[in-house]
Write a structure and sequence with these properties.
Number of strands: 4
Strand order of the largest sheet: 1-2
Strand content: under 5%
Largest sheet: 2 strands, antiparallel
Distance between the termini: 45 Å
Radius of gyration: 25 Å
Structural class: mainly alpha
Helix content: 55-70%
Length: about 575
């Protein structure tokens, strides 16, 4: 059914692109030229947007009036250009020829479709065994693949591929094995050579069971093929469009444009990594949806959405920290009022604000429905295997595009991949990885101390805040400090654009951070240097966000807050937001 729909959708588009082939053949659309133009456009959009925000404030202060219609039109133009810039305006010379990302689909399509048979560790070995049965045994025996059980690259001869293929095949029913071989053969036929061989040196299939449940549903509708994969890759485009619309819906045109420019022009989470992939933006859409729903006071749905996002990618659960801080402060306030003879006197549940109860209800319902459903689809051992492989093995293996506080602490001059890479080893980065692991163990006390200080700072910033969406957005610095995520997850900082709704001076800061990330990406050659520099940039960005939202610490403010009294004010009063 879906394959037929795909044919109806893709065929006209393919015909249109074929007819317009002469358009893309122009020298200006050549890979190198267009890439330089897009890099310049992204930097230009962020800087122009920041300057326009500053100009708007300046104009209002001197009594000049910029028509609302003009401001809205500029915002829409920036939104459209930034959205297009993320995709390189779909130029086929700079992106994948058929748009979808074969490398990504190999892992996520096969990994979810055959999740119970492959688990989290057998994808590469089973692929090699399938190829041997397809008549490519001599070719396969010369290769190297990653042993996902230990996360090291090994010669095929050192794995069970040749010696005991039953370790893979015993998990497949006869028809399922033949279907798997057919899908593998399609990937080989479209990605042969070094591109195909390098796929099996990546880090395998790692999503949680809740994602596998959804991925398996979509993947089971068709066999591997161009039309089907184009249709599946289009789902993420809809998610991206949904993110933009959510920000406009919840925060207005100014913040909507600001968020889109940040996302479309930032370097760590650019199209290169997960563009054209299969359901890689579902967590992102749900994360933004939870923020937007909290802003619109739909707290049950907000809690459900953030819980679903966390079940898809785990790390979004740290965004609950902002909510948790605010809930705890409210409980302390309620207990204090009860001791003084006040409060609502409604027992244990009365300690929670009605909004907090709705939020928690959404979280509980999400867990109680999605987790059991995923167990039914993926098997009773799926969570045990996920924890054992992804959380304990994969997430504890350093990658060159990791970003976070840990990366900042373990990256040293002598430990750079430039000096530690050894091509004589089966895994050239083995020494580089081990060095980072050793330095991380030594730096743990410092790491934990910094996380503690950031948590206290976040609590200070949120001590009088009642808007739950602010607590969620302001938790982004905690996420960065407590995780060591791959770079493409830094699209999560789009939530921080919403803080400009409460603190307008943060708007230019958000855009400058995005533009600076693009400049840094072009400033380094070695991958670990690139993303360590990005980590430092986002760390500074995080500190500026915290400083920009929270009032400076003082004992007078602390005592006033603790006593439940108004805090002393300093500086000029905040300017009212202009009409939107």
């Amino acid at each position: 059914m879906l394959t037929s729909i795909a044919a109806l959708v893709v065929a006209p588009v393919a015909a249109l692109l074929g007819a317009a082939g002469f358009f893309w053949e122009s020298p200006v659309f050549a890979n190198d030229t267009w890439t330089r133009l897009m890099n310049g456009l992204r930097i230009g959009l962020t800087l122009a947007g920041a300057l326009l925000l500053i100009y708007e404030v300046r104009a209002r202060r001197v009594g000049e009036s910029i028509p609302l219609r003009t401001r809205k039109r500029v915002a829409i133009v920036l939104t459209v250009l930034s959205f297009g810039a993320y995709f390189d305006f779909f130029n086929p010379n700079t992106r994948y020829p058929e748009y979808y990302h074969r490398h990504e689909f190999y892992h996520y399509y096969l990994g979810s479709k055959y999740s119970q048979e492959l688990s989290y560790t057998r994808l590469y070995e089973c692929t090699a065994i399938a190829e041997i049965e397809l008549g490519r045994g001599a070719e396969v025996r010369k290769r190297e693949i990653r042993d996902l059980r230990v996360n090291l690259i090994k010669p095929v001869s050192d794995t069970f591929v040749v010696t005991d293929p039953s370790q893979c095949k015993k998990h497949f029913a006869g028809a399922k094995w033949e279907a798997f071989k057919k899908d593998v053969d399609w990937f080989y036929s479209t990605a042969r050579g070094s591109y195909w061989e390098n796929m099996m040196k990546d880090h395998g299939y790692n999503p949680p069971p809740v994602w596998t449940m959804t991925g398996k549903l979509f993947a089971s509708f068709g066999v591997a093929g161009d039309g089907f994969f184009k249709l599946l890759s289009g789902i993420d485009i809809l998610f991206h469009l949904g993110v933009v619309l959510l920000m406009y819906w919840a925060f207005g045109w100014r913040v909507g444009a600001l968020a889109t420019v940040f996302w479309g022009c930032n370097a760590p989470a650019n199209f290169y990594w997960t563009g054209g992939a299969f359901l890689r933006q579902d967590w992102f859409f749900l994360l933004v949806a939870s923020l937007a729903l909290a802003r619109k006071r739909r707290f049950f749905s907000a809690g459900f959405a953030l819980t679903w996002s966390a079940l898809l990618r785990v790390f979004p659960m740290i965004f609950f920290a902002g909510w948790a801080i605010m809930i705890v402060f409210h409980i302390f306030k309620e207990l204090r009022e009860r001791r003084a003879g006040g409060g609502n006197g409604q027992g244990l549940m009365g300690l929670f604000h009605p909004d907090h109860r709705k939020l928690l209800a959404g979280c509980i319902i999400a867990c109680s429905t999605l987790i059991p459903a995923s167990v039914v689809v993926t098997g009773g051992d799926s969570y045990k295997e996920f924890v054992s492989h992804t959380l304990k093995t994969h997430n504890n293996t350093p990658l060159t595009n990791h970003m976070g506080l840990e990366t900042m602490l373990v990256h040293t001059w002598d430990g750079r991949m430039r000096f530690t890479r050894d091509d004589n080893l089966d895994d050239p980065f083995q020494g580089w990885k081990q060095g980072r692991i050793d330095r991380h163990k030594k730096s743990k006390p410092v790491h934990l101390a910094i996380v503690g200080l950031l948590f206290l700072w976040t609590a200070w910033a949120l001590r009088r805040t009642r808007a739950l969406w602010i607590g969620q957005a302001l938790a982004a610095p905690l996420v960065m400090s407590m995780t060591n995520l791959t770079c493409y997850y830094y699209s999560m900082f789009i939530l921080c654009a919403a803080l400009a709704k409460a603190r307008r001076p943060l708007g230019p800061v958000v855009l400058v951070a995005s533009g600076a990330s693009q400049i840094l990406l072009l400033s380094y050659y070695w991958v670990d240097d690139k993303f360590t520099a990005q980590a430092w940039l986002f760390a500074v960005f995080s500190l500026v966000l915290l400083a920009g939202y929270s009032r400076p610490f003082s004992m007078a403010r602390l005592k006033a807050w603790w006593s439940g009294k108004p805090e002393p004010k300093s500086g000029a009063p905040a300017e009212p937001l202009p009409a939107e």
